[in-house]
Amino acid sequence: MIESKPISLAMAISDNFSTPIVVLFAVFYTSVFILSTVGNTWVLVTCYKTLKRRHFPFMWLLATLASADLSFTLLTVFTSVGYFHQWVGGNSTCKLQGFLLEASYTASIITLVMISYQRRKALTDPFNARTRSWPYREYTKLVIIWGLSLAVCSPLVRIYFVSTNKNGKLVCVTKAREDTNPKLYYSLHTTFFFAIPLLCIILTQCCIFRTLRTSVVPISNLYMKRSNQRHRKAAKTLLALTIAFMLCWSPFMITRTLIYFQMASPGLGWRASQLLIFLNAALDPLLYGFFGGNLKSSFRRVLLRSNDILCYHRRADRVHTTSFG
User: Fold this and answer.
1) 120, 125, 127, 128: CA torsion to nearest 10
2) What pLDDT shows up at residue 72?
3) CA dist., res. 276 & res. 270, Å (int)
4) What's the rounded Cα separation, in Å, for the pair 244 and 210?
5) Dist. CA 179–CA 19, nearest whole Å
6) Which among 4, 70, 101, 223 could bridge 40 via Cys, Cβ 3.0 to 4.6 Å?
7) For residue range 41-91, what is the model confidence (pLDDT) as tens digits?
8) Phi and psi torsions of 55, nearest 5°
9) pLDDT at site 118
């Protein structure tokens, strides 16, 4: 059998790793969990406030990506508890958690593909991109993405199950590497929901940057100049998300494929690749904030508002001290 869930402190202990590695894993997991939870929650709140003020189609896709990352992060809690003690909740919970965990990743890659396509259309054919978009019904894209992800990952309900390990503890695992069903499923899933989508995203990125590089914007046309700057900023954000996704998920996908085809065995490299996919959920909101102007400006407004409140209280305290001191 093969465990294919995000790692935790107890997982490291169960693999008989040295104490420094166990401590490093524990600190890393806790830090990433906090960053991912806070960051993706912030993104969702910002998207909600933005959509309340005005129609902004990109925010729906951004909210979908953040919801997938947040779901992935929260679902790792079950795995951590299971490895620290033993799996709780029975066989049904194991199947449901494994199914939703993989569906969250699938939703992320589908969302990145849709964002890439939308940015390319907005750049190469802006008029039709506006007239053919789904005005005020962008939420249907969110439903389509999650619906497709859940449908694609539904076979996992038959792959995950609860078993007893060599220490007599209950663990949630996938079927043995010798079983044909999980080997076939993960091969197809890796091909059609990782390799091909990633290739499409890279080709779309090349098209976007080639168009931006060759486009000529008149200096006197202020509107076209600002529009070009917005496209460049969006392209940089998408490029950063794509690079982070590729670097974090490629080692896991390659290692998992090698393990299922008995060309590698689980070990420290396997656990490290699981750490990387967990890290990706925390990197995404940081990249939004660094490259995305809307989220960055929202965050700046909150910081300025908090600073104004703090300064007001300090002035009030000084007045109070001067008057009654």
Assistant:
1) -80
2) 95
3) 10
4) 21
5) 34
6) 70
7) 999 998 888 888 876 777 888 889 999 999 999 999 888 877 667 888 889
8) -80, 120
9) 83
Question: In degrees rounded to 5, what are phi and psi of residue 216?
Answer: -110, 120
Map tokens 């699981």 to a residue: 274
Tokens of 277: 């996919």
Which of the residue ranges 87-91, 241-245, 254-258, 313-317 would you say has the lowest mean pLDDT? 313-317
pTM for the model stands at 0.79
CA dist., res. 10 & res. 75, Å (int): 16
Residue with tokens 């965990």: 101
Full 3-state SS string of the chain: CECCCCCCHHHHHHCCCCHHHHHHHHHHHHHHHHHHHHHHHHHHHHHHHHHHHCCCHHHHHHHHHHHHHHHHHHHHHHHHHHHHCCCCCHHHHHHHHHHHHHHHHHHHHHHHHHHHHHHHHHHHCHHHHHHCCCCCCCHHHHHHHHHHHHHHCHHHHHCEEEEECCCCCEEEEECCCCCHHHHHHHHHHHHHHHHHHHHHHHHHHHHHHHHHHHCCCCCCCHHHHHHHHHHHHHHHHHHHHHHHHHHHHHHHHHHHHHHHCCCCCCCHHHHHHHHHHHHHHHHHHHHHHHHCHHHHHHHHHHHHHHHHHHHHHHHHHHHHHHHHC
Amino acid present at 303? L
Work out the average pLDDT over 209-213.
80
CATH number attached to the domain at 9-295: 1.20.1070.10
CA–CA–CA angle 103, 105, 106 (5° rounding): 60
Residues 24-61, buried b or exposed e (16+ Cβ, 10 A)? Answer: ebbeebeebbebbbebbebbbebbeebbeeeeebbbbb
- Please state the domain extents for the chain: 9-295
The residues pairing with 160 across neighbouring beta strands, listed in sequence order, are: 174
Closest by Cα among 260, 229, 288 to 36: 288
